[in-house]
Amino acid sequence: MRLKHKKRRGYSNGLGYILLSPWLFGFILMHLLPMLVSLYLSFTNFNMLSAPKFIGVGNYVRMFTQDKTFWKALGVTFTYVFALVPLRLAFALAIAMLLNTSHRGLSIYRTFYYIPSIIGGSIAVSIVWKQMFGNGGVLMSLLAAVGISQKTSLLGNPNTAIYSLVLLGVWQFGSSMLIFLSSLKQIPMSLYESAKIDGARFWGSFVNITIPMLTPTLFFNLILQVINAFRAFTESYVVTDGGPLDRTLFYVLYLYRRAFNYFDMGYSSAMAWILVIIISVFTAVLFKTQNGWVHYESKGGMN
Amino acid sequence: MPHIETKPMLGLKSRKLISSLLFHIVSIVLGFLMIYPLLWLLASSFKSNSEIFINSFSLIPKVWDAASNYSSGWKGISGYSFGVFLGNSLIVAVVGTLGCVVSSLMAAYTFSRIRFRFSSFWFACVMVTLMIPGQVMVVPQYIIFRSIGVINTLIALVAPWFFGNAFFIFLMVQFFRGLPIELDEAAEIDGCSKVMTLIKIHLPLIAPAIATSSIFSFYWIWQDFFQPLIFMNNPGKFTMPLALNLFTDPNSYSNYGGMFAMSAVSLAPVVLVFILFQKYLVEGIATTGMKG
Q: Which fold has domain B74-288?
């Protein structure tokens, strides 16, 4: 008992900070300092060659009032996030429910559904996507084989190119699926059994048991996926290079181009901070709404 | 309202059989669609350049051209063999993973087992770094790296990982919390120091978390594109993702077979590690929701 007491009260600042030092050093050098510098740069005109020139909120004003491409990139990114996140989560949940049954071979199927998530972010996959949905690719040759000949490919058409990127994202539903699957397994079977006795069918059980019990997981998945989708870059850089006509120009790709193609470092930093604000607002709003729809068991269970 | 069961037309046994059959048909079709892009990549890496875009969807090459694709792809680009890129990727991924896992482990142990001033403040900082998009830091990081002269060296790609990663710290803290504090107390009574307790007692018990972190860390570094794109501009220091990106530029490269062959090579270790260590990945994702 005495030892336990000592454990609770005793501080080992020296040892603590020694063991924490690699992370702490990195946090200060790679996160805190760069963030402060970036915040400062966002109020300057800076091209890497001469010293940053303070211009107040000039970059932000220019962004909101003069830069049409900024608005375009913002629009593209919102379209992407709002199309991708619900679709990916719906797929993830549907497949997780399919796999939360008692059949043979479940682990093999799970493997197949999960592999795309593992490799999805790689350049190799972006290359595959570019060729599959580009000119003469899989989609066009398949359509041609059934007698539908197309002049432009899915990627070449400004109106549809973004959806091939959404498809690439939905294809990677595996991680969300695994998270859903593990919380589906924690829903007590007795709930379903008593619902069945009360005459509930599949849909009734799904709406009244599965969904409420899953809301904490859904909430968690939603936040993760929204943050990730806003930060997407590789897809737009490799598969479409932002085109055609900037219709797949993701926010982060435009930010990258501003910094490293135009050496407009101050402007690019300002764009990065706007992204931080957008992501924070989304996260905050989701957290605010959670009282309305997320049911935590400790708060008295479902509904 | 009680539901009245209609009399089943088929026996229970055959109904079960049909539902099982339906399940497998749906699962197999879906599974095929999910891995079709991979199979297509593999098939395209076996086809001759002229065949890739004729009946592109077909997975069976008419003429097997694998040897020439793989050997021409391996010759590389910009005067560097693909072996150079593979080597760079291996160095960065292996060294980076090692540094990342050790630093994360130290931080996680500190947060879960050592009382020190401001510990909860620093832990909050860990969680904040999960949310901040890396793009905010990239311009200043570039400036810092340029001023200390590590741009265009593998150090620029490895160094950031040596500071640990918030995801893995979080994952390991979750595991540490599951270990009873009595273990530490017993070790302390036996005269074990805190560091020895970590190495002798905790390490074997949180091995699954270490395995999960190592695998993900390897994946992330192996596939990382953004950092190398910014910090590297000498092809001799390119990692595989950057090299593959060069292959996609139609002005400098037109050997599709070679491009697909090397894409397949870049994915092979990822798929292999996945098949070998699937168990740890599945556990890790369920605990932290890590993106693969």
A: MetI-like fold (1.10.3720)
